[in-house]
Design a protein that fits this description.
Length: about 280
């Protein structure tokens, strides 16, 4: 069986600045300039440039009115964007990375223990020259600059054979090839890795791929669903707090009010108005 475990916690990294990784769980999280003018997690709404929302729909970036320029993986964002683990966010010229929870060390199957591949698994391009294209994993795929590469990166500085991705023992495995540097997997440099659905790989800085399987969402958030409401009110929810059992939901109160009014009208029609 392929591994479909969900990622239920995140980290927000500021690669070019001092703040440590910020934990991102269910709820709303503000991002803005702190008292020193450094981009960091903030709770003061006056300082916010953007918000990260984590709910059962996925992870969303909502922009504030004061922000000037925002790009996600090099693409401009005007108001909102859905995020994946491994996305690079550029907020007013400062880079942020959305990372998953730290994983245990991968245990890779022995090389050559190939089980024929799985055509249900694929790499879908989400950035760079292969945006919109998919490569199924019914056979091993080689990433590189050489003419025999399945995913060819046309950059003179890129290795002819960079990495090999294949299905082994029911797992999607990426192995770096001799002489090649590591690959960015979910924002982290990895030479070898066991890949899961939703994982994002970046080759040569801007060629992005997501591991997918038909019938499954690209962003697995199943583990978050039981503890979250259907939707988080982006305008009124408290920043930095996880919505819990006390979350007010407007629709049930409106239904209750409508039922009370209908009951009162029925009583008036049945018994008549007092005279």
């Amino acid at each position: 069986m392929l591994d479909f475990r969900a990622v239920d916690t995140y980290r927000l990294r500021f690669p070019n600045q001092n703040p440590p990784d910020a934990a991102i769980g269910p709820g709303l999280h503000g991002i803005g300039r702190n008292a020193d003018g450094v981009l960091a997690p903030v709770e003061d709404t006056a300082r916010m440039l953007a918000q990260l929302c984590v709910d059962r729909r996925g992870t969303w970036l909502k922009l504030g009115n004061a922000v000037r320029t925002v790009h996600v993986n090099g693409r401009p964002v005007k108001r909102m964007a859905m995020l994946r683990v491994g996305d690079a966010i550029y907020l007013d010229g400062t880079e942020l990375l959305l990372l998953g929870a730290p994983r245990e060390r991968d245990v890779l199957p022995p090389p050559g223990n190939q089980d024929g591949g799985d055509p249900r698994m694929l790499l879908r391009g989400v950035g760079g020259q292969y945006h919109g294209r998919s490569f199924t994993l019914e056979r091993p795929r080689v990433v590189g600059r050489g003419p025999d590469a399945d995913i060819r990166i046309d950059d003179p500085a890129f290795p002819e054979r960079h990495a090999r991705i294949e299905v082994q023992g029911g797992q999607v495995v990426m192995r770096g090839l001799p002489g090649a540097e590591a690959t960015v997997v979910n924002g982290e440099m990895r030479r070898d890795a066991v890949l899961r659905t939703g994982d994002q790989l970046v080759f040569d800085a801007h060629h992005r791929f997501v591991v997918e399987a038909p019938g499954r969402p690209a962003l697995p958030h199943d583990a978050l669903a039981p503890a979250l409401p259907d939707d988080i009110d982006l305008e009124h929810a408290h920043i930095g707090k996880t919505p819990g059992k006390g979350t007010v939901r407007r629709l049930p109160w409106l239904l209750l009010a409508a039922l009370l009014i209908a009951g009162a009208l029925s009583a008036l029609l049945l018994f008549g108005s007092p005279g």
